[in-house]
Amino acid sequence: MLKKILSLMIVLLPCAMAGAQVVPAARGGALGNGLRVGGEFSGFAPDFSNQHLYGIGVYVDYDIKKWVGIEANARFLQFNGYKVTGAPGVLGQNTYAFGPRFIYNRGRFAPFAKPMFGIATTTFPDPIIPAYTSDSYFYYSLGGGLDYKLNRRIALRVEYEQQFWQSFAVEGASGTLTPHGFSVGASYRIF
Length: 191
What we know:
Layout: H1 2-17, E1 34-45, E2 53-63, E3 68-79, E4 92-103, E5 109-123, E6 134-149, E7 154-170, E8 173-177, E9 180-189
Antiparallel strand pairs: 1-2, 1-9, 2-3, 3-4, 4-5, 5-6, 6-7, 7-8, 7-9
């Protein structure tokens, strides 16, 4: 399935960027159209623990057309992680991702969907295997949400994301890790 998603992204992204239209002298009221930088607060279920993790994240959106753009984001889930006595670290998860974003602009509302891929790192609070406290994995995710335009520059965001960490292995257990959660935030339109 991962190969199909990546193949589809490779085929669709150049098609979306290959528009042969003249750039308008001024842009209308669409939420997209340009570069946005935002911050968010997230709450995720890490999948290998019943304790939720919370943290902050940043994202950058560049909308190529009114309905398609690209996004890069980083999320740092380090709050509420538990510490095990004798363990060198606290349970935490960080992700760094990139991918296309498909937008449906309707006035102040802009629902979106985004298949992403990137690198995920996790810290394990394990006193038995202290050398095995952190590891990195390739992951992809499927997410979606809603941007709400407050004014010309500022938009609010709410989104949900389901992640799929490939080749996850710890203490003899292996498979695909599937963290999921919600984020809320705001962005500022630079241009």
